[in-house]
Amino acid sequence: MAELTDSQLQRYARQLLVPQIDLEGQQILKSARVLIVGAGGLGIPMAQYLAGAGVGFIRVADDDRVNLSNLPRQVAYTEADVGRLKVDALAERMKAGNSEVTVDAHAARFDANSASDLLDNVSLVLDATDSLQARQDIDRATHQFELPWIMGSAVRTSGQWAAFDAQRRQGCYHCLISEPFGRQNTSCAELGILGPVVALVSLQQALWAIKYFMQQALPWAKLYVMDAWSGEQARLALSIRPDCPLCQQPKS
Ligand SMILES: [Zn+2]
Questions:
Q1: Which residues surround ligand 1, an ion (CB under 5 A)?
Q2: Domain that residue 141 falls in
Q3: DSSP-derived secondary structure letter, 69
Q4: Dihedral over alpha carbons 109, 113, 117, 118 (to 10 degrees)
Q5: Domain assignment present for 183
Q6: Can you give the pTM of this predicted structure?
Q7: Is 151 exposed, middle or buried (0-12, 13-18, 19+ CB in 10 A)?
C-alpha cells in the first residue's frame, strides 16, 4: 500500500480524522485510479474535489473548448481560458491545487473508438457528459471491460445520479433508457441549467467515488432524483429489463 509522506499527512490531516477514511483509506485513495468523462459543469467539481482529496490518478477526457456561456457554472475556468481546451485548463487547476496527484488530460470524446484507451488502467468511471448517447457508450464499454461507473445528469433545477456495478448484477443504464432516445435526448444546452444544481449532482458522484474506493457498497442501480429548487429527493429502484440489449445478452 502507498505510504504517505510527512507533507501528505499534513495536507490530508482533516480528512484522516474522518473515521470512514482514516490513514488506510488515504493510502487507498493515493493508489486509486479514475476516469472522468467530461470537463464541464459536472466534471469540474468532481475533478477538483477528487484531486483535492488525494485520488492518485485522475484521467479527464473532453474535446470541448471553454466558451463564455460555460463560465456561470464551470467556475474553474476564467475569462482568460475562453477558447482553450477544457482539459488543459482543468488539469492546470487540479495540479495547482494538488501537485501530488497525476492528472492525465485527454482532448478526446468518449466513444466506441476511444473507449479502450480511456478505460485503460482505471478502476472506476465517472460520467460527466451531457449526452444520453455518451452514457450509452460508457455503459456498453464499462460493461465490456467489467468496470463500475457512476452516471450523473442535471437540467434546469433537477438532477439525477446512479451507480452501476461492474457485472451489472442489478441492471444497467440500458435497462433504464433504451435506444432510440427520440424526445428524451434534450440537453441543458436547450433546456438551461443552474450552476449550483449541476455542482450538487457532481459532488454526489464524487462522494460515491470516495465511498467506492473505501470498499463500501454503493446503492447499485438505484436512480436518485432531486429537485434542487424544492429540495425534494427520491430514490427509485431500477428493474432489470428481461430483454435488455446489454446486460441480459450473452457477452460477445
Ligand atoms: Zn440492462
A1: 172, 174-175, 244, 246-247
A2: 19-237
A3: G
A4: 30
A5: yes
A6: 0.96
A7: buried
Residue 215 predicted with pLDDT over 60:
yes
Domain tally, the chain: 1
Give yes or no for a contact between 37 and 138, defined as CB atoms under 8 angstroms apart.
yes
**Would 252 be classed as within a structural domain?**
no
Gap from CA of 240 to ligand 1 centroid (Å): 6
Using the mean position of ligand 1's atoms as its centre, give its distance from the Cα of residue 124 in Å.
Answer: 19
**What one-letter code names the amino acid at 138?**
I
- Residue 45 belongs to a domain: yes
**CATH number assigned to the domain comprising residue 195:** 3.40.50.720
Q: What is the pLDDT of residues 140-179, one digit of tens each?
A: 999 999 999 999 999 999 999 999 999 999 999 999 987 6
Q: How many CA atoms lie within 13 A of 200 on its CB side?
A: 20
Tell me the CA–centroid distance for residue 199 and ligand 1, in Å. 28
Query: For 44-74, what is each residue's pLDDT tens digit?
Result: 999 999 999 999 999 999 999 999 999 999 9
State the distance from the centre of ligand 1 to the C-alpha of 208, rounded, in angstroms: 21
The whole-angstrom separation of Cα 138 and Cα 116 is 11
222 three-class SS: strand
> CB of 34 within 8 A of CB of 126?
yes
